[in-house]
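User: Predict NUDIX domain-containing protein's structure from this.
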Amino acid sequence: MAATSVPGIGNLGYHRRSSGSAQHRRGCYFDLRVNTVVNTKTLTINRLETTLRSYSGKQHEAEGSSPPAAVSVLFNITNGEPCVVMIKRAETLRHHSGQWAFPGGMIEESDDSAMHAALRETNEELGIASSDIDIWCQMPPVDTSTGFEVWPYAGRVADGIELTPEEAEVAEVVNVPVRVFIEEVSKRTITVVRQGTTRKLTAYAYEDRIIWGASARIIANTINIVMNAA
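Assistant:
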């Protein structure tokens, strides 16, 4: 199993993931078994929108135990298939540097809501105006290993929008096909060593990129909500 040193984390190795059982996280479900029987052609952008717009989920409120943050999980059509916008965080950032994530950041006192924070940060990082984003729903919050509570907002970015990454915060931006988070061939199990504790986590491989941690849980939750809908 290959291993790579990750600053601030320790050794991180990964290999293809064998079939497994449901994994649970606070405030969300993370059942990967559904992915082994899904026809990716059935997961269209219209199905994503219809299902997520009707997702009532419980409206979550901050518990005050973790610093709150908010992110935008933005879908679009790229090369004829549904994709989700992801960014590689700049290596100079204090938290989660060099990792793949969704645009977003800390909720500030000046923000009217968590959704406002997600849209504001998305504009700062990628230059997307809030008027070019159609938010479908609020997703269950996810806790990060660094102690943040992240509130995801799923939606769609308007077609033809040119992204202008903020170089100080964003090293790369890519439209990741949704099928990557469904097909078994894309799954990996990574081993993360942090402060002497070893954990095995589910991750996804797209080309030479590895998507793991809170971002992997957020997109898995989103896809599973859609695939499990009646």
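The two ends are 39 Å apart (CA to CA).
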